[in-house]
What we know:
Layout: H1 6-11, E1 19-22, E2 26-30, E3 38-44, H2 59-76, E4 83-86, E5 102-106
Antiparallel strand pairs: 1-2, 2-3, 3-5, 4-5
Amino acid sequence: MAEETIFRKIINQEISTELLYQDQFVTAFRDISPKAPTHILIIPNKLIATANDIEIEDEALIGKLYTVAKQLAKQEGIAESGYRLIMNCNQDGGQEVFHIHLHLLGGKPLGRMICS
């Protein structure tokens, strides 16, 4: 049985949230603590704990996260002005939920990613 995470409950619609996208492979919804006017989480329906756990057989699934991000950026009206895609890995990388997820951020100038 897959490990229970808050994302698993969202995928299974056990927690109420507005799903922006869902198919048999991927689910997307707004972050509950947005860091930009548009902040969407795009997650695989398959539990993969961290980027370190991605296997060769997951390559198409990981690519699907990015094509859904592109579609959502266009839908949100931020594709032309620009957006950022981030996937954190483990504690030092800022990962809080151990079910990989792609952050789609935009809707304002985001500046430099890392300040020295």
